Amino acid sequence: MRDFLSDVWYVAGWSDEVARERPLARTIANTPVVMFRDNRGELAALRDRCPHRFSPLSKGRIANGVIECGYHGLQFDRQGACVANPHGPISKALAVESFTMAERDGLLWLWLGDSAKARMESIPDMSAVQQEPSNSHFRGHLSVRAHHLLLVDNILDLSHADYLHKAALGSGGTMTRTRPRIEEGEDFILAEWFAAKEDKGVAIMRAELADPNALIDMWTSVRWHTSGAVLLKVGITPTGEPRDQGIVTHVIHAMTPQTPGSSHYFYRVWRNYQSDNAEYSRMMEGAVRFAFEGEDKDMIEAQQINMGDGDFMSMKPALLAIDSASMRARRLFDRALAAEDMARMEVARSGPMSA
Amino acid sequence: MRDFLSDVWYVAGWSDEVARERPLARTIANTPVVMFRDNRGELAALRDRCPHRFSPLSKGRIANGVIECGYHGLQFDRQGACVANPHGPISKALAVESFTMAERDGLLWLWLGDSAKARMESIPDMSAVQQEPSNSHFRGHLSVRAHHLLLVDNILDLSHADYLHKAALGSGGTMTRTRPRIEEGEDFILAEWFAAKEDKGVAIMRAELADPNALIDMWTSVRWHTSGAVLLKVGITPTGEPRDQGIVTHVIHAMTPQTPGSSHYFYRVWRNYQSDNAEYSRMMEGAVRFAFEGEDKDMIEAQQINMGDGDFMSMKPALLAIDSASMRARRLFDRALAAEDMARMEVARSGPMSA
Amino acid sequence: MRDFLSDVWYVAGWSDEVARERPLARTIANTPVVMFRDNRGELAALRDRCPHRFSPLSKGRIANGVIECGYHGLQFDRQGACVANPHGPISKALAVESFTMAERDGLLWLWLGDSAKARMESIPDMSAVQQEPSNSHFRGHLSVRAHHLLLVDNILDLSHADYLHKAALGSGGTMTRTRPRIEEGEDFILAEWFAAKEDKGVAIMRAELADPNALIDMWTSVRWHTSGAVLLKVGITPTGEPRDQGIVTHVIHAMTPQTPGSSHYFYRVWRNYQSDNAEYSRMMEGAVRFAFEGEDKDMIEAQQINMGDGDFMSMKPALLAIDSASMRARRLFDRALAAEDMARMEVARSGPMSA
User: Fold this and answer.
1) pLDDT given for residue C206 in this prediction
2) Residue B83 near residue B75 (C-beta atoms within 8 A)
3) How many degrees, rounded to 5, is the angle at CA A207 between CA A201 and CA A210?
4) What is the DSSP string of A133-176?
5) Binding partners of B (≥3 Cβ pairs within 8 A)
6) Is the pTM of this model over 0.90?
7) Which CATH architecture has domain C133-337?
8) What residues of A are in contact with residue B73 (Cβ under 8 Å)?
9) N or C: which end of chain B has fewer CB within 10 A?
10) CB contact, 8 Å: A32 with chain C?
11) Is the complex ipTM more than 0.90?
């Protein structure tokens, strides 16, 4: 069964990972992709496979804004057209598949499917990243040996932090007790939790309030897109105070499918408090890295090992109230997958492309 | 083909490996199992997989004698019943499969099959372990990447020590020359070798006699059970002297199936001579570890690599006289496997469980 | 699909790798082989698998010119006949498959197929190895995780050196510009390139001419045999001078199939210039090792990863003029494979061996 969507904007990395001097290789949804920039700095994404001998173009170099295969010197431009063949004429066969890319909010967005359907308006909105001074930001990238939807389940059910990340990121049971309001869009799920008059709350944030012992209000929102891109916000205020005066932590998560057995996990964290406190930044970054790259990765990979090649839903999990948002996400994902399959069959049946 | 028995008492480890503070995870016969103790110290064994999201319970903690999942805090008792769900009501689906356990002779015994058939009397008798002062004991546990019956073949044909463990454990050809008397029980094979008036014998033991150059009598017995548990004894006396005045080395071996491609190998060694000689103990432990964890493991894994996925008997080995005990064991094992399969089919045909 | 020929002389290693004291284990064309010498120094090659318990004979020892299994002491001679069984009579079943071997030009030649077809005259001619003083020679052996024909493609298209090995071994485009004359034999392809009045040429060699800036003539020849054995020569002279006064570098390459996913790569390099210059030798050896064991291995393994299990030709590569020799080689290889298959079918149909 196909497990990856084609017609979505995948997060493929961070903008500054693709410099003019060197290409970036990354496997996205089982497709090896090489990303580079032309002389004007425009992004390009090609299938990372020379049509001549199938060696990875990413082992080559950038020469005058085109990419040169390191094996025999063939050169390809942003559209994947061969622009230099030192060994003879340029035949039609000398072309590489190219993909649509965009760059927004510091992220590389990659569209693997039909480029005619790739609209800039449908890039998930991560503009919140521009709100805070960059000195409070940190980010990471890891590969998790698990199905991408297991990572999605993890983010859409934040009660797990009360147990798995108890010490620093847990909410002392607040997330466990609170049920979300769920909104569903064409390609996203938005889940919002609100808890009032709590004497607990995310430990690492509560400590930053003027009176760390006061009752608080806490709101959490997670917007997940079918591509795996997620924007998460957690805010707290002393009880009754307006939200826009609260302290807020933002996280971009992107659980981009990598191979059938592994998923990328990109994350970026920033906040509107203690922005200039380098020591606090170090402490928070340490706590978050330990939680994401240690605890989450370890638990999700162990879950996958226990599941083997089994499909999660087919294995009949005993679902709980905390799974409501992730179950909505899985259903939306399945519908998107089915819609893509249907569209392909229609093309195959009616169109001249079926020949 | 199924390669593992269900209705046997498997050695799953050593009693003291399961403390009250921490669970023990181990895969036995392809089943991930978590073992822990309740508040009274009673052993429990559950399938190591939370019914909610299939994460391993062994990554959690013991709280008041029940095990708590480290992902979302569900708690399960010895019987696998859910006793706490912080996220809502306890539904029937929130249950974990539990297995029967026993503790005897310092070993953890695990019954993966039908608990109604698990009789304490059928636990293999390893009470010999209590005979000698514990300061002469040492033990080990390793995982061997080979089918469990290759390890059984190895133990039921001790002539291999004359070649593979020549220096310390070899008998100078005594085992090679001697044929065993074989007794067969419902679930065991007992093989006994006796050699009289030998001028060789297990090197490491002969050196301990009053006159190391005297002729000796040597007897060896290996009792193998279908679960893979083995009790081995080697004794020597100056020729003609009564056995109960001889020096004896005991070994428990347990070749417990782990996965289709690997087997546990537990061993415990003790003796009735030089019990208080720490230096001798160190020497003997060194020699045994080298033989078991170096030479045996290396040879058996190389054998398995050479066999690939092939079934040993189907590959038509050129069997020798020294293989008589292990061939009896393989036939007994196959009959036990066939009997289990037959019993299951009967249940399926006649019973209401077939629905 | 079968991917390995049987009736060819494979390079299995270097003569001096098999000493009288120790056997040499190597997997050739998916067959585990143990090589050793008898008391007269004659080479033997047996299937590296004892018929008793399938353990590798190579884990044993050489005793009086026969090989003794390290597990139970069975001994086998050069023909694979059992000559000692410490455990009883020698039955017919106690025999190991033996293979035909030859030793020539410092190489071990192994014939895995029908020994009746193994003619010494068909051993690829590598006598050029005897022409130069041995102090200019160096050699290497590595295992490459790629199909053996990808390594063949690499050697039969030397234009790759202009890009992949640009710094030291590249010819500054000379190989890229020159087309070969191709000669085809029953079991070999000989490709010869000639370039006159070049102002470039293999960098590392040009520097050795009396006038490194003079125009040169350069000739290159690659003789590839279906077994994967290759003799390569590159010579240069100042333009117009006779070839036999030129400086020449020789290389034996042997791309011997190992397993379906990996290939041996043996190489030996020597030259007729700077033979006694130890510093030059070190420099050249460093450059060659970096090119072969670093750049070639890395590129070819990446190519294989990109191809997965796919067959190269079925994946429809966009072939170039530089691929003419390797395409001839692939066709010759396919014909040889088909001829072997056909011969087997005939035997099966007509002969008594079909029973």
Assistant:
1) 87
2) yes
3) 110
4) -GGG-EEEEEEESS-HHHHHHHHH-GGGHHHHTTTTT--TTHHH
5) A, C
6) yes
7) Alpha-Beta Complex (3.90)
8) 162-163, 176
9) C
10) yes
11) yes
